[in-house]
Amino acid sequence: MNYNIANLPEEYRQATDDELKSRIAAKKREYGDRLLILTHHYQRIEIVAFNDFLGDSYTLAKEASRQKNAEHIIFCGVRFMAEAADILTAPNQNVYLANPTAGCPMADMAAMDDVSESWQYIESALGKDKVIPISYMNSSAELKAFTGKNGGLICTSSNAAGAFDYCLNRGKKPFFFPDQHLGRNTANSKGIAKDQIVMYDHKMENGGLSVADIRRARVILWSGYCHVHTNFTPEHIRKIRREYPEAKIVVHPECIEDVANMADSVGSTAHIVKFVEQAPAGSIIAIGTEINLVHRLAVGNPDKTIISLAKDYCTICSSMFRTSLNDLCFTIENLDKAELVKVPEEVARDARLALQRMLEIGH
């Protein structure tokens, strides 16, 4: 059943935060190790408080695959993450999405019909076995299955560089989707020439690429993007440099190329967390990523000044923000009515291949 806070039963809508927290904690104690709560870094701070594992999508996918005793896994994140957890866990384990409306606009930018059409065109230009698909974790289960079926692998922002190496070391062209900016920033980090990085725009005929373009390229990108990270601009960095000359700037690789090039450090959510935690007391750090993580890092590191790179502009992922204490309480108390995520086995089989290749290349 599809519930969100607007149509949760009244007792969950009317309960105070303190009541909800008490009830969630009581249910966690009752289930013990039979229940697991996975929370992404971008979740609200009050949701993060109930995590059994907190991390980026790579960490959570890995932990989901390891937790053999958990009968019930509640994912506080977005749908593609819960799908990955279901694919990697055993058939007797159930995965629930705390808020069933939590999706990912970037994942929706790579529809299977468009991807299949692009694959046919690229293979017609190159011939068989010349290109390997890499699907970012932020993608549907169907796209992960397509990737696995065609010899490819999944990656996260933590191990995109390793995924590129997986292809390049085999003499194959990576076809990376859906996030063009993570793909471009990763290709740049490998020293690949700009004229050898091309983008397939699914809104244009043949992606806007000629056969010669595809043959010349070493890397082919898809035209998707993250609506949060593309809000950060070079002007934001210039303004921070003016106002806080001593500040260090760390950004997520889903930011645009110019922002990544101007930052002091670029890396995944896990990298950003580590960057802040390892910085000396008194540091000023401006962060280019989702505001809930920035806020939590500021609260957790009071000896440092932690600010958003965009300052007063609210760079929030509305999909991640949808998960509330109300949702989590309803889910943990009503597993029989909660949003059970089950990927069909014919899809899961091929997607599992791609995810397992990701886990094999490591972080």
Offer a concise description of the structure.
By secondary structure, the chain is α/β, with parallel strands linked by helices. It has helices at 10-14, 17-31, 45-48, 57-66, 79-88, 105-108, 112-126, 141-149, 160-168, 180-189, 211-216, 234-243, 257-262, 269-278, 291-300, 318-321, 325-333, 345-361; strands spanning 35-40, 53-55, 72-76, 94-97, 131-136, 153-155, 173-177, 197-200, 219-222, 248-251, 265-266, 284-288, 305-308.
Count of helix runs: 18
Fourth CATH level, the homologous superfamily of the largest domain: NadA-like
Q: Main β-sheet, in a few words?
A: 5 strands, parallel
CATH architecture of the largest domain: 3-Layer(aba) Sandwich
How would you sum up this structure, described in words?
With 363 residues, the protein is α/β, with parallel strands linked by helices. It is 45% helix and 15% strand. A 5-stranded parallel beta sheet has the order 6-5-7-9-8, sandwiched between helices.
Please specify the SSE layout and strand pairing.
Elements: H1 10-14, H2 17-31, E1 35-40, H3 45-48, E2 53-55, H4 57-66, E3 72-76, H5 79-88, E4 94-97, H6 105-108, H7 112-126, E5 131-136, H8 141-149, E6 153-155, H9 160-168, E7 173-177, H10 180-189, E8 197-200, H11 211-216, E9 219-222, H12 234-243, E10 248-251, H13 257-262, E11 265-266, H14 269-278, E12 284-288, H15 291-300, E13 305-308, H16 318-321, H17 325-333, H18 345-361
Parallel strand pairs: 1-2, 1-3, 3-4, 5-6, 5-7, 7-9, 8-9, 10-11, 10-12, 12-13
